[in-house]
């Protein structure tokens, strides 16, 4: 009788364990299915939202580099949030995971401090746009034409054809000079005429040369003034405005035209002169009694 009573109890216990394992497996399976659904739907929604933001920024004429960066940033943040949510559905505690992600982000930020500075300035340069591709600028101590701008550095082509890759952090922390943002530029020449030459005639001739060159703008009006009296010349300062693309050619051509006009009009351009006085005579005679 004892043996008959033990066997049903063991069978009952075994059946209960199997039922408990089955319930656990079903719950785990349901959690896995729910987590997979969260991931699939979340990935679809994150991609759609990121693409929507990218398209909206494009329609708002945002810089393509900045809009692409913001699209990827939003997508990455949504994916991180999605992973934490999916793990929470599986029953994994989210607080330790968030703390670990925060610690990892802090460590990465400290390790990439310089790169993050360039990245931050790249975003600011793309937002505020102190210069555009094709502008001739002085930025980060380098002068050249902007070839490209990305989130980490700016590529400048220098006047002699060399390429300069300037970190955005250096550009943002220094003064930026945009030479052609306004479309016009002023150039300045300085030259001297002799003291015996007619200053009025020289200035009138230069004004005629202003009118003869169509590249020199009349508004703002060009001008010529006396700027000082040098050691051997009366110094004149000449200022004129041109369109940005015409500045160099108009400046060099005007300088040559002034020289040729002065030569034809008999107006001299003196070179610096020095007077040297030579005193002839021998050494002073020795006093009596001195050898």
Describe the structure.
By secondary structure, the chain is α+β, with helices and mostly antiparallel strands. It folds into three domains: 96 residues, Helix Hairpins (Orthogonal Bundle), CATH 1.10.287; 49 residues, SH3 type barrels (Roll); 82 residues, Alpha-Beta Plaits (2-Layer Sandwich), CATH 3.30.70. 54% of the residues lie in helices and 18% in strands. It has seven helices and eight strands. The protein has a five-stranded antiparallel β-sheet. The chain has a three-stranded antiparallel β-sheet with strand order 6-8-7, with helices on one face.
Helix and strand topology:
Layout: H1 2-59, H2 64-89, H3 94-111, H4 113-128, E1 136-139, E2 142-149, E3 153-157, E4 163-167, H5 168-172, E5 176-178, E6 184-193, H6 199-212, E7 223-229, E8 234-243, H7 247-265
Antiparallel strand pairs: 1-2, 1-5, 2-3, 3-4, 6-8, 7-8
Helix pairs in contact: 1-2, 6-7
Give me some keywords for this one.
Helix Hairpins; five-stranded antiparallel beta sheet; 18% strand; 7 helices; rod-shaped; 291 residues; alpha+beta; Alpha-Beta Plaits; 8 strands; SH3 type barrels
The SSE order reads HHHHEEEEHEEHEEH
Helix content: 40-55%
Helix-and-strand structural type = alpha+beta
CATH architecture of the largest domain: Orthogonal Bundle
Termini Cα gap:
157 Å
Strand order of the largest sheet: 4-3-2-1-5
Q: Nearest-angstrom radius of gyration?
A: 40 Å
The total of helices stands at 7
Number of individual domains: 3
Apparent shape: rod-shaped
Strand content: 15-25%
Query: Could you give a short account of the major beta sheet?
Result: 5 strands, antiparallel
What name does CATH use for the topology of the largest domain? Helix Hairpins
Q: Total strand count, please? A: 8
CATH class of the largest domain: Mainly Alpha
Low-confidence stretches: 1-6
Mean pLDDT across every amino acid position: 79
């Amino acid at each position: 009788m004892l043996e008959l009573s033990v066997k049903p109890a063991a069978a009952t216990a075994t059946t209960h364990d199997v039922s408990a394992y089955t319930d656990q497996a079903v719950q785990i399976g349901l959690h896995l299915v729910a987590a997979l659904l969260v991931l699939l739907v979340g990935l679809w929604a994150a991609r759609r939202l990121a693409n929507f933001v990218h398209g909206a920024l494009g329609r708002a004429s945002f810089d393509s580099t900045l809009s692409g960066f913001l699209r990827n940033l939003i997508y990455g943040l949504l994916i991180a949030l999605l992973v934490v949510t999916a793990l929470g559905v599986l029953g994994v505690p989210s607080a330790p995971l968030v703390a670990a992600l925060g610690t990892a982000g802090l460590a990465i930020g400290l390790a990439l401090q310089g790169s993050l500075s360039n990245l931050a300035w790249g975003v600011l340069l793309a937002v505020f746009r102190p210069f555009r591709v094709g502008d001739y600028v002085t930025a980060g101590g380098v002068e050249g034409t902007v070839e490209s701008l990305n989130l980490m550095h700016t590529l400048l082509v220098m006047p002699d054809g060399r390429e300069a890759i300037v970190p955005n952090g250096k550009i943002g922390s220094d003064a930026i000079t945009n030479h052609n943002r306004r479309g016009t530029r002023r150039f300045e020449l300085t030259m001297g005429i002799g003291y015996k030459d007619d200053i009025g005639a020289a200035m009138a001739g230069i004004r005629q040369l202003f009118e003869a060159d169509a590249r020199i703008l009349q508004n703002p009006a060009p001008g010529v003034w006396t700027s000082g009296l040098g050691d051997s010349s009366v110094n004149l300062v000449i200022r004129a405005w041109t369109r940005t693309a015409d500045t160099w050619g108009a400046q060099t051509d005007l300088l040559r035209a002034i020289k040729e006009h002065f030569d034809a009009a008999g107006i001299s351009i003196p070179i610096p002169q020095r007077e040297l006085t030579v005193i002839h005579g021998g050494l002073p005679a020795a006093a009596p009694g001195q050898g």
